[in-house]
Design goal:
isomerase activity; 2-enoyl-CoA Hydratase, Chain A, domain 1; 49% helix; three-stranded mixed sheet; isomerase; alpha/beta; 11 helices; six-stranded mixed sheet
């Protein structure tokens, strides 16, 4: 029997690509999938990797329908291993959320439960027009275990988040866009090209600048605006001394496109 990887890692210029590769299981998330995602992030984040943006996409008809329930069932007799299954997934999605690199997800078909939690940990979301999103944990007596209970209400709002949790209903891409869960809705056949084009565009930006803006935005959401504003003041002052700013200003004066090295 040929063993294939549950995740395929590749590059397209300065874009690092993480592709879920279990279409026969609707790209469900397992320990091995999380390990592959973590390893990919580690590799892409290295300063000499040349990667400036990450794209997460999936093979087959669906982005991801949740956790690998076969693996969950096999662990239920061992509380310690089951706890590790949850905590490891938690740490990987937190790692993704806090990556210095911008992370873009391209979602087609169904993005449900753990798949929705993976999507929520990303920065920018592209969705096919016929994509659907939802959280079905309550339908089966489960609760979100990989950050969904915290990220969903923060992004979509408390009542909308609770509605999705309680009802276990699916919403379409248009509603997901209205709720702020999705940034761009495109025709299904254009999803891959549109998401990669976006990643390629932002990959021309200053890596340090994007990392700083991501840090400011995410930390600001977690604390008070006063703390966030002070952090912005401090980091913006320091950034003005950076080589990327020198290149940006020189490019502006010369009316050319900047070429950032960092």
């Amino acid at each position: 029997m040929i063993q294939t990887s549950p995740v395929e890692i590749s590059r397209a210029g300065a874009v690092g690509i993480i592709e879920l590769a279990r279409p026969e299981k609707f790209n469900c998330l397992s320990m091995s999938v999380h390990a592959a995602i973590e390893a990919a992030i580690d590799g892409f984040e290295k300063s000499d990797s040349g990667v400036r943006a990450i794209l997460i996409r999936a093979q087959g008809k669906h982005f991801c329908t949740g956790a690998d329930l076969d693996e969950v069932k096999s662990l239920r007799g061992d509380p310690a291993r089951l706890k590790h299954f949850i905590s490891y997934g938690h740490s990987v999605l937190k790692r993704l959320e806090r990556s210095d690199l911008p992370v873009v997800a391209a979602c087609q078909g169904l993005t449900l439960a753990g798949g929705c939690e993976l999507m929520l940990a990303c920065d920018i979301i592209f969705a096919a027009k016929d994509a659907r999103f939802g959280d079905q944990h309550a339908q089966f007596g489960l609760i979100p275990g990989w950050g969904g209970s915290q990220r969903m209400p923060r992004i979509a709002g408390l009542r909308r988040g609770l509605d999705l949790f309680f009802s276990a209903r699916w919403i379409d891409a248009a509603i997901a866009e209205q709720w702020g869960l999705v940034n761009y809705v495109v025709e299904p056949e254009q999803l891959g090209e549109a998401a990669l084009a976006y990643c390629s565009k932002i990959a021309t930006r200053s890596r340090i600048g994007m990392a700083t803006m991501k840090r400011l935005a995410r930390q600001g959401m977690e604390g008070s605006s006063e703390v966030g504003l002070q952090l912005e003041e401090d980091l913006a002052s320091a950034a003005l001394l950076d080589d990327d700013v020198s290149e940006g200003l020189a490019a502006f004066e010369a009316r050319r496109t900047p070429v950032f090295k960092a």
